[in-house]
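Q: What residues go here?
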């Protein structure tokens, strides 16, 4: 369907399976993918930049990958960080089923949970970290809900990490996070993308 988007469910969309391959830290990944999911044919630049920025931080504890798609961010972080317990969440049931299959392929299932949720509606408990490559095309109402809602789903001292292109509102997003959290840090700038970190005060 011409009006189908990766940030909704479209049960009428035909299935055309494919595989997304990418290499991180000398490890080759091959994730199952399909029509109707975000970046269905390749690892997008934003996700790669976010992953490569976060890996050296050695995040641990509980991590929420919000808007996970087929899982490249949360699953790659879980693969390299055995101390992480990851919840991968998305509204798109096809993407979530693929994410769950990919977690099993990578033998991550005990540490990775896949959960359908419209932003934070089904998210319970508190997380040490929330990461997101937000669905910019869904509009500011959705993306701002991700940013603002993160605070109530983080432990004290927990952080939100997001990647957003300068051309798609990185400066205004940075200002919003500064207002909501009282702090914001630019962890990386690459290919027009910003990786932003905002921490919930203790």
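A:
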């Amino acid at each position: 369907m011409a009006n189908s988007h990766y940030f909704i469910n479209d049960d009428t969309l035909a299935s055309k399976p494919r595989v997304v391959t990418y290499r991180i830290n000398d490890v080759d990944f091959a994730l199952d993918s399909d029509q109707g999911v975000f970046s269905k044919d390749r690892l997008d630049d934003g996700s790669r930049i976010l992953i490569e920025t976060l890996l050296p931080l050695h995040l641990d504890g509980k991590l929420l990958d919000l808007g996970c798609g087929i899982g490249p961010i949360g699953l790659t972080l879980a693969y390299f960080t055995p101390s992480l317990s990851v919840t991968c969440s998305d509204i798109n049931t096809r993407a979530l089923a693929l994410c769950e299959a990919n977690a099993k392929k990578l033998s991550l299932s005990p540490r990775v949970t896949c959960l359908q949720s419209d932003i934070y509606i089904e998210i319970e408990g508190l997380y040490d970290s929330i990461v997101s490559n937000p669905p910019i095309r869904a509009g500011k109402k959705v993306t701002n809900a991700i940013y603002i809602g993160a605070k109530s789903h983080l432990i004290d001292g927990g952080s939100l990490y997001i990647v957003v292109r300068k051309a798609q509102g990185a400066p205004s997003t940075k200002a919003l996070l500064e207002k909501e959290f009282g702090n914001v840090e630019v962890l990386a700038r690459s290919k027009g993308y910003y990786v932003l970190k905002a921490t919930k005060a203790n």
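A: Context that may help when evaluating the design: Residues 19 and 167 are 29 Å apart (CA to CA). The chain is about 25% helix and 30% strand.
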